[in-house]
Write a structure and sequence with these properties.
This protein is α+β, with helices and mostly antiparallel strands. It contains 5 helices and 8 strands; from the N terminus they run αααααββββββββ. The chain folds into 2 domains: 77 residues, no CATH class; 81 residues, Roll (SH3 type barrels), CATH 2.30.30.
């Protein structure tokens, strides 16, 4: 459960007392999938003939297999081709858009006061993720003309941080600005 939480939302916190039923259910599912292997290795008495392999098997079963299972479940829930009729693991569009690796955008942010701020979201940029409030760091701040075109990157800036409580909406553009 902890590894799955790392894949979905690393900063999420759930009270451990509320996770007991989830932990029991997940363990039952884990052992149900592993039961044929447990039965086979116990039937052939692997512990007597190959004690190190026997220890490795249970080490794998208790520590490694749950990690593989949680990673696989996250991939299934995230994949457009394999997605089940369940909700997407990313709870918010903000988290979904900004969690995509190797994606860069030119972003126009329209603030609540009507002012438009432009910038480049690249590999040095950062966005917060749930459950933290949405904040956006753009590594380059751009001058946006009155008609909404990106003119040029501002000189002598180290980027811009935009707080979500100031944002009306965000426009994302892929590719190069012409």
């Amino acid at each position: 459960m902890k590894f799955y939480a790392l894949f979905v939302s690393p900063d999420s916190y759930r009270d451990s007392s509320k996770q007991i039923i989830d932990a029991v259910a997940y363990s039952c599912f884990n052992y149900a999938l592993s039961f044929p292997f447990i039965l086979f290795f116990e039937k052939i008495k692997l512990g007597a003939s190959h004690p190190y392999l026997y220890i490795f098997f249970y080490f794998f079963l208790i520590l490694i297999f749950p990690i593989i299972l949680s990673f696989s479940w996250h991939k299934i829930r995230s994949s457009p081709k394999l997605r089940l009729p369940l909700s997407h693991p990313q709870g918010k569009p903000w988290d979904y858009v900004f969690s995509q690796q190797n994606k860069t955008y030119y972003i126009k942010v329209t603030l609540k006061d009507g002012k438009v701020v432009g910038g480049y979201y690249g590999e040095k940029s950062f966005s917060s993720s749930s459950p933290n409030p949405e904040q956006l760091y753009l590594e380059q701040c751009w001058i946006v003309s009155n008609n909404g075109k990106f003119e040029r990157a501002k000189n002598n800036t180290a980027g811009i941080i935009i707080l979500t409580n100031e944002i009306a909406f965000i426009e994302l553009r892929e590719g190069e600005i012409k």
